[in-house]
User: Fold this.
Amino acid sequence: MPSAPAPTPSRPRVLVLRALGLGDLLAGVPALRAVRRAFPGHETVLAIPPELRDAALATGAVDTVLPASAPGRGVPVLTGWTGGPPDLAIDLHGNGPESHDALAALRPRRLLSYVRPDPAVPDPPRWRRDEHERERWCRFLRAYGIDAEADDVRLPPPTRPSPAPGAVVVHPGADAPARCWPAGRYAAVVRRLRTAGHPVVVTGGPGEEALTAMVAAGAGLGPEHVLTGGLPFGDLSALVAGAACLLSGDTGPAHLAAAHGTPSVTLFGPVPPHLWGPPPHPAHAVLWHPGPPGDPHGTATDPGLLRIGTDEVFAAVLERIRRPGPDARPGRDERAEASGRV
Assistant:
């Protein structure tokens, strides 16, 4: 397994642990950028699954990736680290002792975490369950004197062209069935979009070939309109950046749409949008029917997600597509009114 290179004598290293998925990485971009600004003379190393290397480097907030992963959302052992101890280690992985201890094993000069706060800080950060993921980690850093803005999510434009410019991109999959709206409902929305004259492509990650095939077949799409098997990040980024709108559940591509200012419609079920939704802007619609909290990693579609109907999804996508002019795509510093359930 590749390891983080040893530092030069004149350049200390900051090691950040966030060995989770694409959506987690993109939700952590504001915090990563804050670390980069606070330590401009350091090499910023991010411990993350190796398949997210290109996505991590595309943020512009990371110099080097330390490949690190564990089953599920577990904490990896950071055996790939080489050279001397980190000058600073930052736990952006979670609030348990496991992630703190994985970093502590490298004997960093200083370690910032929720579970065992730095004793030199008079008012250490405290974990809040009912807090948006972006704000959670920005508040954490601010408690340690590092200025961070939770809306600083935008990525640089992709350098490669979109494989389907101007299409509505539909991503029906998610890491867990609990966050997957039924394939038949996606197909019904796609059929209506095509009847209205809008080009549509369906995307899927590794192992989602059967799901994308089901949506495509139900919508009457040919194989040329299906991009599955897990696009390389550069291609996925270009596809989402060039889309007329992204329709998906609460998963990585939804965060990528926010990162590129692409209009989006995101379907929420077990987790409410105030915890994981896009930054407030009319270009982003979040559809959610309030109910009891669910399990985002459950093995069956969440009942709240099933309460979202095809009519409201179709209407929300059309509204995003028809929003004219440059105001359709939010800029980094915009603070528009909150988007809500359509």
